[in-house]
Amino acid sequence: MNTDPISDYLTRIRNAIMANHKVVEIPTSKIKKEITKILFEKGYILNYKFIDDTHPGTIKIALKYHPVTKLSAINKLQRVSKPGLRKYVNVEQMPSVLNGLGIAIISTSRGMMTDKEAKAQNVGGEVLCYIS
Description:
Elements: H1 5-18, E1 23-27, H2 30-41, E2 45-51, E3 58-63, E4 77-79, E5 88-89, E6 103-108, E7 111-114, H3 115-120, E8 125-131
Protein backbone atom coordinates (compact mmCIF):
# COMPACT_ATOMS: atom_id res chain seq x y z
CA MET A 1 0.00 0.00 0.00
CA ASN A 2 1.45 3.32 -1.09
CA THR A 3 0.63 6.29 1.15
CA ASP A 4 1.44 8.95 -1.48
CA PRO A 5 0.67 7.74 -5.02
CA ILE A 6 1.41 11.11 -6.67
CA SER A 7 4.87 11.21 -5.14
CA ASP A 8 5.43 7.63 -6.33
CA TYR A 9 4.31 8.68 -9.84
CA LEU A 10 6.74 11.61 -9.94
CA THR A 11 9.58 9.49 -8.54
CA ARG A 12 9.09 6.77 -11.16
CA ILE A 13 9.27 9.37 -13.94
CA ARG A 14 12.30 11.05 -12.32
CA ASN A 15 14.13 7.71 -11.99
CA ALA A 16 13.34 6.73 -15.59
CA ILE A 17 14.72 10.07 -16.83
CA MET A 18 17.91 9.66 -14.79
CA ALA A 19 18.36 6.17 -16.28
CA ASN A 20 17.60 7.49 -19.81
CA HIS A 21 14.68 5.10 -20.28
CA LYS A 22 12.37 5.66 -23.25
CA VAL A 23 9.23 4.26 -21.58
CA VAL A 24 8.08 4.06 -17.98
CA GLU A 25 5.18 2.00 -16.62
CA ILE A 26 3.18 3.29 -13.67
CA PRO A 27 0.17 1.83 -11.80
CA THR A 28 -2.92 3.81 -12.71
CA SER A 29 -5.40 5.97 -10.83
CA LYS A 30 -7.71 8.80 -11.86
CA ILE A 31 -5.34 11.50 -10.57
CA LYS A 32 -2.35 9.96 -12.33
CA LYS A 33 -4.31 9.79 -15.59
CA GLU A 34 -5.18 13.48 -15.35
CA ILE A 35 -1.58 14.46 -14.56
CA THR A 36 -0.40 12.38 -17.53
CA LYS A 37 -2.86 14.14 -19.84
CA ILE A 38 -1.62 17.55 -18.66
CA LEU A 39 2.03 16.53 -19.16
CA PHE A 40 1.21 15.42 -22.72
CA GLU A 41 -0.78 18.58 -23.55
CA LYS A 42 2.06 20.80 -22.33
CA GLY A 43 4.72 18.86 -24.27
CA TYR A 44 6.65 17.32 -21.38
CA ILE A 45 6.12 13.72 -22.54
CA LEU A 46 6.09 12.23 -26.03
CA ASN A 47 3.03 9.98 -25.69
CA TYR A 48 1.07 7.86 -23.23
CA LYS A 49 -1.23 4.85 -23.20
CA PHE A 50 -3.68 3.67 -20.55
CA ILE A 51 -3.80 -0.12 -20.22
CA ASP A 52 -6.78 -1.21 -18.12
CA ASP A 53 -6.78 -4.99 -18.79
CA THR A 54 -4.88 -5.78 -15.58
CA HIS A 55 -6.36 -5.19 -12.11
CA PRO A 56 -4.59 -2.01 -11.03
CA GLY A 57 -4.08 -1.02 -14.67
CA THR A 58 -0.96 0.68 -15.95
CA ILE A 59 0.04 3.88 -17.66
CA LYS A 60 2.80 3.59 -20.26
CA ILE A 61 4.53 6.93 -20.71
CA ALA A 62 6.97 7.58 -23.55
CA LEU A 63 9.47 10.11 -22.27
CA LYS A 64 10.58 13.02 -24.45
CA TYR A 65 14.27 13.73 -25.10
CA HIS A 66 16.05 16.30 -27.29
CA PRO A 67 17.26 14.49 -30.46
CA VAL A 68 20.79 15.96 -30.41
CA THR A 69 21.68 16.67 -26.78
CA LYS A 70 19.64 13.75 -25.36
CA LEU A 71 18.39 15.98 -22.52
CA SER A 72 14.93 15.32 -21.14
CA ALA A 73 12.05 17.75 -21.66
CA ILE A 74 11.46 17.47 -17.90
CA ASN A 75 14.21 19.06 -15.82
CA LYS A 76 12.59 19.00 -12.40
CA LEU A 77 9.60 17.32 -10.76
CA GLN A 78 8.76 18.60 -7.29
CA ARG A 79 5.91 17.44 -5.05
CA VAL A 80 4.35 20.39 -3.19
CA SER A 81 1.24 19.25 -1.33
CA LYS A 82 1.97 16.15 0.72
CA PRO A 83 -0.38 13.90 2.72
CA GLY A 84 0.99 15.30 5.98
CA LEU A 85 0.93 18.94 4.88
CA ARG A 86 -1.55 20.00 2.23
CA LYS A 87 -0.87 23.23 0.31
CA TYR A 88 -3.94 25.16 -0.84
CA VAL A 89 -3.89 28.46 -2.70
CA ASN A 90 -6.43 30.94 -3.99
CA VAL A 91 -6.13 32.84 -7.27
CA GLU A 92 -4.08 35.69 -5.75
CA GLN A 93 -1.54 33.25 -4.25
CA MET A 94 -1.21 31.11 -7.40
CA PRO A 95 2.45 30.06 -7.82
CA SER A 96 4.51 30.85 -10.90
CA VAL A 97 7.11 28.19 -11.73
CA LEU A 98 10.32 29.61 -13.25
CA ASN A 99 8.52 32.88 -14.05
CA GLY A 100 6.02 31.08 -16.26
CA LEU A 101 8.43 28.68 -18.01
CA GLY A 102 7.33 25.71 -15.88
CA ILE A 103 3.88 24.60 -14.73
CA ALA A 104 2.21 23.92 -11.42
CA ILE A 105 -0.51 21.25 -11.45
CA ILE A 106 -3.49 22.32 -9.38
CA SER A 107 -6.38 20.12 -8.22
CA THR A 108 -9.46 22.36 -8.27
CA SER A 109 -13.19 21.93 -7.88
CA ARG A 110 -13.32 22.01 -11.70
CA GLY A 111 -10.76 19.24 -12.14
CA MET A 112 -7.01 19.08 -12.60
CA MET A 113 -5.39 21.99 -14.44
CA THR A 114 -2.24 24.06 -14.71
CA ASP A 115 -1.65 27.25 -12.75
CA LYS A 116 -2.31 29.40 -15.83
CA GLU A 117 -5.63 27.69 -16.55
CA ALA A 118 -6.67 28.08 -12.89
CA LYS A 119 -5.88 31.81 -13.02
CA ALA A 120 -7.87 32.17 -16.25
CA GLN A 121 -10.87 30.40 -14.70
CA ASN A 122 -10.45 32.38 -11.45
CA VAL A 123 -10.33 29.28 -9.26
CA GLY A 124 -7.91 28.08 -6.56
CA GLY A 125 -7.15 24.65 -5.20
CA GLU A 126 -4.50 22.24 -3.97
CA VAL A 127 -1.03 22.63 -5.51
CA LEU A 128 0.05 19.06 -6.30
CA CYS A 129 3.42 19.54 -7.99
CA TYR A 130 5.79 21.79 -9.93
CA ILE A 131 7.18 20.69 -13.30
CA SER A 132 9.89 22.47 -15.22
